[in-house]
Amino acid sequence: MADNGDEDSQYRIKQGDYVVLKRGNIFKAVQIQPKKKVIFEKQWFFLDGAVGNFYSTTFEIVSGALQPQKLKNTDNAKEAGTDNRNIVDDGKSQKLTRDDIEDLKEKGLEGQEIIQHLIDNSSTFKDKTEYAQDKYIKKKKKKYENTVTIVRPSCRILAMMYHGREPGKICHLRYDTLAQMLTLANIHAGSKVLVFDTCAGLVLGAVMERMGGYGSVIQMYPGGEPVRAGMESFGFPAHFHDMLHGFPICRVNALLAGTLDTTAKDPSAGRACFFFSLLKLSEMFIALLFPEETEKLEFKKIFYVFVFVLQAQERLVKLEEKRKKLAAAAALLEGRNADGLVIASRFHPCPVVMGLLPFLAPSRPFVVYSQYKEPLIECYNKLKEHGGAVSLRLTDTWLRHYQVLPNRTHPLLLMSGGGGYLLSGTTVATDRAKPAGSQRAEEPAPKRLKLTDTEG
Amino acid sequence: MSFVEYSDFIQDGDVAIVYLGHESLMPVKVQQGAQTQTRYGVIRHSTDLIGQRYGSKVTCSKGGWVHVLHPTPELWTVSLPHRTQILYTTDIATITMMLELKPGSVVCESGTGSGSLSHAILRTIAPTGHLHTVEFHQQRAEKAAEEFKEHRVDHLVTVRNQDVCQDGFGVSGVADAVFLDIPSPWEAVKHAKTAMKRQGGRVCSFSPCIEQVQRTCEALADQGFEEINTVEVLLRVHDVRTVSLPLPDFGPDSSAQTEPDAAEKAPPASAPVQTSVSLKTTTPPREIPGHTGYLTFATKPRT
């Protein structure tokens, strides 16, 4: 193995890596940490066995630990029937009982071996058609295989994971809809993008992945703190975080009005700390003046004061950092020259887009996601009224998976009912004075239906 | 201006997109002294375009007006001159995400065709990635190379005029992703494998016919590709409309006759009777694209 060790090391799983556990179409994002137990598909195991192996390795779960899977043996051609006219489903074809199977599991048999036992003990297996046999084996594999593959996180994988596992957390944003958003908003390296995301940070992470660490992303967030869990699961290198900024939406109006003050230091916190320390010190002096207190207690008091002052300092430093970050984000926004706007949230999209659109430069794309269509209809009409946007389109995508097998090709039986809706458009320079009627109607006039003579 | 980087002001030599309204777009090569005819009149490049901000409104000679937009791959896709059937944004977006393209990705593509997908790939892989695109038709290959240069993305792409099924992509062991949009993709699968990095990568094949998909999936499985998966994506557009629905007239309200005395004393309220209700809704277009092609994705494992 004449591998260039350095080159390949970036393809190996390391401690601290953010990875995704995969079995078929089931995914789970975890972080590799020593002695950490994880649960995946009803099985508990430690991840330590994975470290050092290449990404996309498949492991067997053996006694709560991971071992790289041995090569699979190919299935031998078996005796098969032609159709199911004589197969009676009486529930008695499998001779192994549930207890027998449990015994096999306890003996530590591999999934494949258990499946072989099931086949050997099935009275109807040899009568099934080849296709039915394939289907049977696939079904048993899904049930009894105890393998897990560890893959690198990516937008594709995480979007599928969230949609399959916790769609509620991402406002039921389907992964193909997310794909459309990233392209329609022209997300690319070197631009300045605004993101309003209450989808656990998945959309934020997807945008950052497409920017590759170049340019800047400003996450507008409701409430006190931005949610970035989904973004963390991408496992971005440290320098990606340097391009990420946050700005609370409760300060947007102040920023737009020019009244946002990011320079004044907050004196109240410092003052509070000072007075508290003074109080503690005076307590200490009182204790000293009345020496019935034991020495130990006095020492304790000094120690507590010391710790308290340290914590106060830390709090001040944190506040200062927060202020600096806010000022940096405000500076990026003030120019009102952002290159793209992506909105995906549980909030009513209309006020969000109207509130954030002013930060975009002219001739730049924006995309708004909503789980429901009606709020976007409102947005569309508001934007038309307000002006400043062209090429408005309300769309959704229809996604269908296919099974492609010789003589068995067809769409899958179930498909996703809905993946949410998108409103996309491009900003244009707004006129100062907008006389009514100067807007060219984009809606063709509704056609008057011709009534036949018989209708009233 | 470039297709991979925004700029604010229109300059001589730029390619700008003129938005005429109603989803009607027109690419314009900006040149000193040149003129462009539109249905609203003439646009004079030197006065109306050069030096103006992208996104500005431009009044044409007949008095009508248009907007001038900065080019993006999406605007290019719906305004470019077709030399072949092209891929539209819906499929392009799905392909981009499912192939895991991002800045720095090295991609192999065949056929180049009219360059619709190529521009989108270049936008996504810039500034550090590279696109190797193969087109067996000489004029199309030349035209594509010309456009890449005009659009200031030629440093990110290499165009090769050869048959991918015979000669492959011209590179080996470098690609993170391979895309095939050719009549016989199964013949190119082994070349795709060669072009891809040893450590693995993603492949996608676009085919309009299910028979092509079947043969391609077989070839992918034979070559050891995993996670083979076929999907199709369709776009549904919702046209926002204000509609007015008339209300039926069932005659005067019969409940007013139950208390004749009260009716005599209190004159009937002269509230105006509503004849119709106006509401904002969406309607689907009369015809929508029902099929573009099947997208088959697969992963090349480490070899």
Automatic annotation (TrEMBL), chain A:
Subcellular location per the Swiss-Prot or TrEMBL entry: Nucleus
UniProt keyword terms in alphabetical order: Coiled coil, Nucleus, tRNA processing
UniProt feature coiled coil, ranges: 309-336
Compositionally biased spans, kind Basic and acidic residues: 440-456
Spans annotated as Disordered: 432-456
GO terms, biological process: tRNA methylation
Gene Ontology terms: cellular component: nucleus; tRNA (m1A) methyltransferase complex
InterPro entries per record: TRM6
Protein origin, superkingdom: Eukaryota
Known function: Substrate-binding subunit of tRNA (adenine-N1-)-methyltransferase, which catalyzes the formation of N1-methyladenine at position 58 (m1A58) in initiator methionyl-tRNA.
Recorded family membership: Belongs to the TRM6/GCD10 family.
Subunit structure, interactors included: Heterotetramer.
Name of the protein in question: tRNA (adenine(58)-N(1))-methyltransferase non-catalytic subunit TRM6
Organism (species): Sparus aurata
TrEMBL record, chain B:
Region named Disordered: 246-303
Residues bound to S-adenosyl-L-methionine: S114, G115, S116, L117, E135, D163, D181
PROSITE patterns: SAM_TRM61 (PS51620)
Pfam (any one): GCD14
Domain tRNA (adenine(58)-N(1))-methyltransferase catalytic subunit TRM61 C-terminal: 64-300
Family statement: Belongs to the class I-like SAM-binding methyltransferase superfamily. TRM61 family.
Name listed for the protein in its UniProt record: tRNA (adenine(58)-N(1))-methyltransferase catalytic subunit TRMT61A
Organism: Sparus aurata (Gilthead sea bream)
